[in-house]
Amino acid sequence: MNKTVKIILGLVAAILLIIVLKYFMDSNSKAVEDFKVEEPFYTTINTKAVATGKLNPEEEVELKPQISGIVDEIFVDEVDVVNKGDLIASIRVGRNNEPLMQAHSRIKTAQLAVDNA
Q1: Interior/surface letters 48-64, b for 16+ CB within 10 angstroms, e for the rest
Q2: Which of 6, 54, 72, 86 suits 45 as a labelling partner, its CA being 20 to 30 A distant?
Q3: How far apart are CA 66 and CA 102, in angstroms?
């Protein structure tokens, strides 16, 4: 090869090298981003857990009166603790008094059994 071809190839290689270096320098020289800086501090973190589901009671009691009628007034709430013999509600007896009379007779029979014992 002659001397001029070598010089031209050298100049082309040098120009390509300068173009590649310029491209990489431009692509890496992005603007500097300023970030907002906060000072550290101590605090408490309140965490809350949301749970969905169903609550089942440990013990469930079903109340049924011995006579039929209409409930006039309820004396206890759902969360109240009741003891045996506590008055829970008042019932207005309808026209049929026979179940009421049977209930009174059962009370009298039970009272007589207690007295005899």
Answers
A1: eeeeeeeeeeeeeeeee
A2: 54
A3: 9
Contact 99, 66 (CB under 8 A): yes
Distance CA 49, CA 37 (A): 31
Type and span of the H or E element at 90:
strand 89-93
Please state the rounded mean pLDDT for residues 95-108.
Answer: 81
Q: What is the pLDDT of residues 84-95, one digit of tens each?
A: 888 888 888 776
Q: Is residue 5 helix, strand or coil?
A: helix
d(CA 26, CA 20): 10
Sequence spans of domains, the chain: 1-30, 69-116
Inter-residue contact 46 to 62 (CB < 8 Å): no
| Mean of pLDDT values over 76-105 | 82
How many CA atoms does the CB half-sphere of 39 hold within 13 Å? 2
